[in-house]
Amino acid sequence: xxxxxSGSYPLGYSSHEANRLEQQAAFLNExxxxxxxxxxxxxxxxxxxxxxxxxxxxxxxxxxxxxxxSVVGVDRDPEGLNRARAxxxxxxxxxxxxxxxxxxxxxxxxxxxxxxxxxxxxYFPDPAAALRELLRHVxxxxxxxxHEPDLSRISTxxxxxxxxxxxxxxxxxxxxxxFHPRIGVSLGQVFSAAGLAPSLLGATRMExxxxxxxxxxxxxxxxxxxxxxxxxxxxxxxxxxxxTLDQRIRQEADAANALLLGPLMVGAWAxxxx
Length: 274
Ligand SMILES: C[S@@+](CC[C@H](N)C(=O)[O-])C[C@H]1O[C@@H](n2cnc3c(N)ncnc32)[C@H](O)[C@@H]1O
Hints:
Blueprint: H1 15-39, E1 46-50, H2 56-65, E2 70-75, H3 78-90, E3 96-100, E4 112-118, H4 127-135, E5 138-150, E6 155-157, H5 161-176, H6 187-193, E7 199-203, E8 206-208, H7 213-231, H8 237-240, H9 242-255, E9 259-261, E10 264-271
The structure holds S-adenosylmethionine.
């Protein structure tokens, strides 16, 4: 296994984080599937899903390409890959397999009809160079689709101090670990630099008041990031005060009857030139 580059992966590999990814997928999949539809993913295609995590994107693709198609999900995390295999098996998806790789290098000789990834380009030190490397695995005329966030767009109207403070911390910890929290709004440039002509679609979750999923998403994400925040001196454990954060955010958001806007999620897709 090659976790040598994973030391600065800020979300870590806890069971809490594995559960969080599955919960997050339940609200991201709608946009992901719409982007796949617009990108032209269809039955019979062979799909490569990079940074597959718990397998949610791979499984969504597997349902679209059907029994005549196939999906390979790759990730560095062996426990996540095992969990993804178990979930795919429980869902009776026999057209998906999961392999270990340290991206962007993949030991695969076959060419794929589609290259996809969600919430993974944010971690590539040089996203355009990584995309160019990954494109080697795509057949000419194949589709390429990534779905990445701009974490700086998380906001409230009017301002809710506990949200604003934690959004700043969220962005800072990614930056201090050397990653790209605003990659979503750069996806078009990344695709162009890799020789692709992108189409783009963006969406943001919006909720009124503190009773919805936005606070859950923010607090569970901060819980995963807390060790990295302490390590990179973004905040101390006492400043984060994770056990009271959910209550503080919901109370402040309700008191202001604030509009909560989640991360801007950007989907980009293109066809690899023949
Ligand atoms: C935030 S998760 C997203 C998982 C999944 N795509 C989803 O949307 O639910 C990012 C995943 O990318 C993987 N990852 C990040 N950088 C990687 C690298 N250089 N090589 C292999 N996997 C990587 C992590 O291990 C993690 O499972």
